[in-house]
Amino acid sequence: MGDSISSYPVDVHAAARAVAESFGIKRLAGLLEMPLSTLYAKTDALSADPSCKLTVWDVVKITAFTRDTRIVEAISRTVGGAHYQLPDLSEVPDDALRDLLLKADEERGEFASHLRRALADKHITQVEWKQLDADLLEIVAVYAEARARIAAMAGQ
Which residues of 37-68 are buried (b: 16+ CB within 10 A; e: fewer)? Predict the structure, then answer.
């Protein structure tokens, strides 16, 4: 996908319709084992039929079949969040996993050091909070990468 994130629909149904049309709505309906009319209705925000709405399972299957994350990204943006696509680590050698886990330890050490300094005066400033938040997000990212690598090693 060459589109920038700002061009992605925020509306979940608009994203679903865009994904379905990009992939091929007939092809997707076949993979989902769903009548074409149902898929059209589920991806139409103005559908008169309240029973024709995307389910979480629909979103998971559509995303898995198409490998297109625009629906997930629209959901994330709707609730004020962000979507992070994990890198493909299936080709990374085991030494890289060790290095990744050591990096996690380093990141935790940096966080602990910053937290100790921030708590020294029993008050956390906005600047300190931004640093701590960045440290925590980096720790989460490293562990998410490690999890993905281990899962790939297990054939998951």
Answer: eebbbbbbeeeeeeeeebeeebbebbbeebeb
